[in-house]
Amino acid sequence: MRTVLWAAAALLIATATPHAAEMLPIAQVKNSTGQVVILRSGGRLPAKAGDVLFVSDVIETGPDGAIGITFVDNTVFSTGPNSQLALDAFEFDSNNFRGSMLADMRQGTLAVVSGDIPRSSPGALKIKTPTAVLGVRGTTFAVLVYGER
Amino acid sequence: MRNLALALICAVLAGCTREALFVVLPNAEGGGTGAITVDDGKTVTTLDQPYAAAEARSGSAVPVEESRGNISVIFRRALAAQPALPHHFRLYFIIGTDRMTPESAAAYRSMFDDIKQRPVYQIEVIGHTDTLGDVRFNQTLSLERAAAVHELLVRDGADRAAITIAGRGKLDPVVPTADQVAEPRNRCVIVTVR
Q1: pTM for this model (two decimals)
Q2: How many domains does chain B have?
Q3: Angstroms from A46 CA to nearest CA on chain B
């Protein structure tokens, strides 16, 4: 009986741990104006200052929308109207500042001030667009992706 | 808005379909310009100067000239939404204690002013020590230093829920030294405000 319980506990821990790690906040919304929603687990949540963001969140801004967010590695993103940006992957170890990050810029405008990830791991911050992948070695830059909306 | 209209007109005309634009911007708060690379699957374009740009057209990315005026119009709203950049502050401590040096009071005040200017914020407080004494003593001391700063911040009205603290002991010194070296620059707490 005891063995079975331990096995069950081990299984719980094994399945719970990766999920918990996945659900660590990766960024915080610093400002949001106009229509801005976060697509998460099939839902649409209006974005407001102070909200935290997670891996797999998608940010969508309307014709009058704009949003500024800061990641836990101190990378800063800001997005203008009619934009769609997916936060596909993010890993960061605050002990050695190493990590990696992948964002998918599907449409619209994005301005970036890069933080600790590209500083400690050049090229580890990537931004995917429909035609090209952007690698970042630490700088301030902007991306525009023309869309169909 | 005008640019979107232009883009639409452009998209209708054959051979004029810009799919994306990539631009290096001048560093917001000084520091050297880094670089971005644009990889279209066939070639990699490196952009490493302020206002250097590349565009994607028919699946290929090539360097392109884009005027500063156009760049500022295209990215006006995105740039206007840029939050205050994260800032780091160093507070120094009296040897063997969790009391700040008198000189650090000014640094603490400018840090607090920075925090107050942010509508929402996160604060990371990391304590360090020099290499005098053993590992366990310094681990405790570094955490006590971080806790002292945390206490001050909360006393002054910072949101407790927005603050995280950690102590790195003597194992992760700001200025690397040999063991058992008194180094004032390592008796510090680094605060990141973002």
Answers
A1: 0.87
A2: 2
A3: 17
